[in-house]
Amino acid sequence: MMGPVSRRNVLFATLFGLIAAFLVYLYLTNLTRARRAETEPAQATVVAAARRIEPRSLVTSDMLTTTFVPSTERPALYGIEEKQEIVDKVAVRAIEPGSPIRREDVSPKNPELFGIAFSLPKGMRAVTIQTDAVSGVAGLLSPGNRVDVLATFRGSGGSVTRTILQNVRLLAVGRRATPSAPQEAGKAPAPQDASSTTLAVTPQQAERLILAADQGRLRLALRSVEDSEPASTAGATSREVIGASLQNAFAAPPPPTASQRSASIKSFPEPSFWNQPGPQPGVLPPAAAPAGKEVVVYRGTTAERVRISQ
């Protein structure tokens, strides 16, 4: 039988053996990793497509995932490590599922390249109205400005002008959907084409705007960049602006009544031949006298009437 001292020695020997085995395991593991790192390139995490991304589509976070590529390739080819770097950008080409996304695969939302649909806020509509140098603020409007829309309607009782929309964002002026380049100091911006203006409105505002454009005349009022509060106005009428007496003086005459229209019709006399009696039944009209002059010719003691034609 083993004594207490022998048992203690066996336990210590077993414990030291386990510790030595664990240290050998760690050493071999680290050695293996070091050798693998020497033979295999390091991996880097990059952003990839979770599903097919169609060209000209807006990139959202649910379209993206991550994948691994050799770290030596990441800076040169990909370089996109965070999803937020490309969220809300536009795909310029098709991106297949699992493919790492390159920086040249996406582009910022540029209305000149992709149209104003990508700069239109969700739930809004783009409506274009016809303008000119006066109604379009002398062509000095720029995409991104805020304007109020005023409409003038004419009726039998006079004219009325009302503000139908306020603080509306301009999407495009003519075919220009991006602001003009900065001007030199001391120089005013050059007038732009203002034959049409595109506004960002809600569906309800689009209905009001189109009806007003069809029934009246529209003008735009440019807002200050520091002014976004709605203005409370009751509109203006021609009676208020020029007074009732002047309005009546310049008002169009009322349409004539039925009695006035009938009295204004001139009566013409009937032709004289309408009053002459017509031929009686069974009675022949008298024969017309032959044309020419009648002379008397004497032959000895005999007289004869002869008609000479003219």
How would you describe this protein?
- By secondary structure, the protein is of the alpha+beta class.
- Among the domains are: 43-108, Antifreeze-like/N-acetylneuraminic acid synthase C-terminal domain (Type Iii Antifreeze Protein Isoform Hplc 12), CATH 3.90.1210; 118-178 and 193-250, no CATH class.
- Helix content is 25%, strand content 25%.
- It has helices at residues 4-39, 74-78, 111-114, 203-215, 238-242, 244-250, 258-263, and strands at residues 43-49, 64-70, 90-91, 106-107, 125-130, 146-155, 158-173, 196-201, 217-222, 236-237, 293-299, 302-308.
- The longest helix has 36 residues, at 4-39.
- The model has no long low-confidence stretch (mean pLDDT 76).
Number of helices: 7
Largest sheet: 6 strands, antiparallel
- Decide which structural class fits the backbone: alpha+beta
Q: Give the helices and strands as they follow along the chain.
A: HEEHEEHEEEEHEEHHHEE
Q: What percent of residues are in strands?
A: 25-35%
Helix content: 10-25%
**What would you call the shape?**
elongated
Topology:
Elements: H1 4-39, E1 43-49, E2 64-70, H2 74-78, E3 90-91, E4 106-107, H3 111-114, E5 125-130, E6 146-155, E7 158-173, E8 196-201, H4 203-215, E9 217-222, E10 236-237, H5 238-242, H6 244-250, H7 258-263, E11 293-299, E12 302-308
Antiparallel strand pairs: 1-2, 3-4, 5-8, 6-7, 6-9, 7-8, 7-10, 11-12
Produce a short descriptive summary.
With 310 residues, the chain is α+β, with helices and mostly antiparallel strands. 25% of the residues lie in helices and 25% in strands.
